[in-house]
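Dear Dr. H.,

I hope your travels went smoothly. While you were away I took the liberty of generating a structure for the chain from your last submission, since the lab meeting agenda had it listed for discussion. I wanted you to have the full record in hand beforehand rather than looking at slides cold. The sequence, exactly as received, is reproduced here:
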Amino acid sequence: MKSLQEISQKAPNFKFNLWEAKENGYINGGIVAHRSNGLDSKDIFLCGPPSFMENLKNQFLSLGVSGNKIHYENFSLFD
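The corresponding predicted structure, in token form, is as follows:
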């Protein structure tokens, strides 16, 4: 199976950025916007614990991203 890094090297519309919270602190909408050269016309895909995704979703909404451009699947390890 190819890694996301390998896929991003061959797919011009897919950008992979590894963010390590232990080294860089928690990621936020502003960091994503900066590293992505803005958020206009981009789709956002989130994965993580529900509180993390809800927080980031709200940040992206406040940055002007349309709700239909934010994608995630709700899951929880502790139901």
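Two observations you may find useful: Residues 50-62 form the longest helix (13 residues). The chain has four helices and two strands.

With kind regards,
E. W.
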